[in-house]
Specification:
The chain is of the alpha/beta class. The chain is built from eleven helices and nine strands. The N terminus is likely disordered.
Length: 277
Amino acid sequence: MIRAVMIMIIDSHVHIGTFTGFDLSPENVLYSMEKYGIDFSLVSNGEAVEFDHVGNPIPAELQKPQNEVFRDTIRFARENPDRIGAVPWLKIHSELPDDTFKALLRENRDVVYGFKFHPYHSRTAPDDERLEPIYRLAAEYGLPIVSHTGGCEEARSVHLYNAAKRHPELDFVMVHMDLGTDNSEAIELLGKLSNLYGDTTWVPVRSTLEAIRRWGSEKILFGSDNPIDGKDTYLHNRTGDRSLYQEYFNEFRDAVSREDFDNIMYKNAQRLFRTGR
């Protein structure tokens, strides 16, 4: 159970798994959390990827089944219930949740905090009507939808906006706020729906400050992709340059009010994902 303290950080976007050139171990997640003062991490398992980095489908025999990926994610959360929450990465192109998935969710609801989409690695847009059974299941269990945005047409933030508009009963988070762009389209969309949010994963601090200025600090969550650049992702990138997240931990903290800082670094995640339950 998470308790609010004087200083808290919830990282709403963390990964485990070996996939498409990455080897993100649970051990590195726990190491980095301890070293850099992260109180709780919401974790997805990238072994659910369906397409590679250039959009080629991964052969079916090389893909890991949805339920096996889900079990591995649950196991990590079960072993660390006070530190880790499971956010299952769904194979939205090739698999819908089956009866086994639903049973796993029902039996482990206490450690499951949301559903993760990756339209770039699934080449399927969140507003595709084939995903309606997932949204019904999310509504049944009160689970937010966390989705990568950026990199291809299916992953543009406007498609998540469309899904959020269609489903006001659910909360949606635009991870990256359109990775590799100036974030302007995603920031504009933030103000159009009360159930649409952004996160800070690889988002420049200037974009987050603009989103706060326009729509308030209640619309953004701290996320990082940890440990995508290794066990010291919070400190430096793969080339050894200072990590963007050091700017969030330091300069950003000095640039906003304490209330805004706390909203983004943990309070919004507590509210959306009910991490204090």
